[in-house]
Design goal:
Elements (H helix, E strand, L loop, with lengths): L11 E2 H7 L6 H9 L3 E3 L2 E3 L5 E2 L4 E6 L2 E7 L9 H5 L2 E3 L2
Antiparallel strand pairs: 1-4, 2-3, 2-5, 5-6, 6-7
Helix pairs in contact: 1-2
Amino acid sequence: MAGPELEDRDWQRLDKWLWCARFMRQRSDCAALVAEGAIRINRQPTDKAHAKLRIGDVLTVAIREDVKVVRVLALSARRGPAAEARGLYEEIA
């Protein structure tokens, strides 16, 4: 069983990563976005905020009228400045 010591090294909770990557202002908003079914991981829909996210995963994120497809480049132990957050992913056209 993977404990919290492995989180942020091998995987990260989806809602926490979205918050660290600054997709939403509050982590609770990120969890709500996931619960609404607005996120897909590697084309698979998920409504679980605790879904495990790994480097290399591709996320489809629907926020309001916008849909972004991003590849996870890094995990983050903390929510940093916007420039640092942009380094966590790359947009796929």
